[in-house]
């Protein structure tokens, strides 16, 4: 589905929700909508039911009006989805490689037949990882054999490492880091993650809070490339 949305004032996240005839609410996508301009909301869902449904545009701020225009729905089968994915893979993830095969005396070999076996993928294909991987060997084997990149879902967040104020516990995230290092290496460091609260850190910890975070992270691991999310 897609729709152009705008709100009456400020900026707010607007979500598209499908409400079925039996009252179920199915999330269909979201966008940061603003006053004075239209924002494109694109999303979708897997419909494993047969029912009529209403599309609701919702924001946590009940004081603003939400305007929607050019709302459209397009159904597609799993086969159509796969075809679209294959086209995207051909366009984005593939490129031509030219081989020049010669004899030891540098003369070109004509009519030769070569075979190629892929050893590993360079494409940055990744997935989130949670703490269950520490105690589940099947999860470990499945994950390590498929993904080149990962990030921890919640295990490095404040409420996970300091459940009791003043008592820090990094046992779980440290073990997860060791698992990653065992199967590769840490090359990037998401120092500031999901900074959604405007000046929360600056107002509570000082205007140089970000700089201090990056300085400390760099001292801990100078080789890692640091970035905000």
TrEMBL record:
Residues covered by the GH10 domain: 119-188
Gene3D superfamilies named in the record: Galactose-binding domain-like, Glycosidases
Similarity-based family: Belongs to the glycosyl hydrolase 10 (cellulase F) family.
The organism's place on the tree of life at top rank: Eukaryota
Protein name: GH10 domain-containing protein
GO biological process, one term: polysaccharide catabolic process
Entries under InterPro entries matching the protein: GH, GH10, GH10_dom
Pfam families recorded: Glyco_hydro_10 (PF00331)
Species per Swiss-Prot/TrEMBL record: Acer yangbiense
């Amino acid at each position: 589905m897609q729709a152009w949305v705008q709100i009456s004032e400020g900026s707010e996240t607007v979500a598209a929700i499908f409400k079925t005839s039996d009252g179920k609410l199915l999330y269909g996508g979201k966008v940061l909508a603003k006053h004075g301009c239209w924002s494109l909301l694109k999303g979708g869902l897997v419909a494993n039911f047969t029912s009529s449904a209403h599309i609701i545009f919702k924001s946590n701020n009940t004081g603003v009006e939400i305007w929607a225009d050019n709302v459209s729905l397009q159904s597609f089968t799993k086969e159509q989805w796969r075809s679209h994915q294959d086209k995207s893979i051909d366009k984005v993830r593939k490129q031509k490689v030219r081989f020049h095969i010669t004899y030891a005396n540098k003369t070109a070999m004509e009519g030769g037949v070569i075979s190629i076996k892929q050893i590993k993928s360079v494409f940055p294909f990744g997935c989130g990882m949670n703490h269950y991987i520490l105690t589940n060997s099947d999860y470990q084997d499945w994950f390590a054999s498929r993904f080149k990149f990962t990030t921890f879902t919640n295990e490095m967040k404040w409420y996970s490492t300091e459940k009791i104020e003043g008592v820090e516990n990094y046992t779980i995230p440290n073990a997860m880091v060791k698992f990653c290092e065992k199967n590769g290496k840490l090359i990037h460091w998401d120092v500031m993650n999901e900074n959604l609260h405007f000046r929360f850190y600056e107002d509570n910890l000082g205007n140089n809070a970000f700089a201090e975070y990056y300085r400390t992270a760099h001292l801990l691991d100078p080789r890692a490339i640091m970035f905000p999310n």
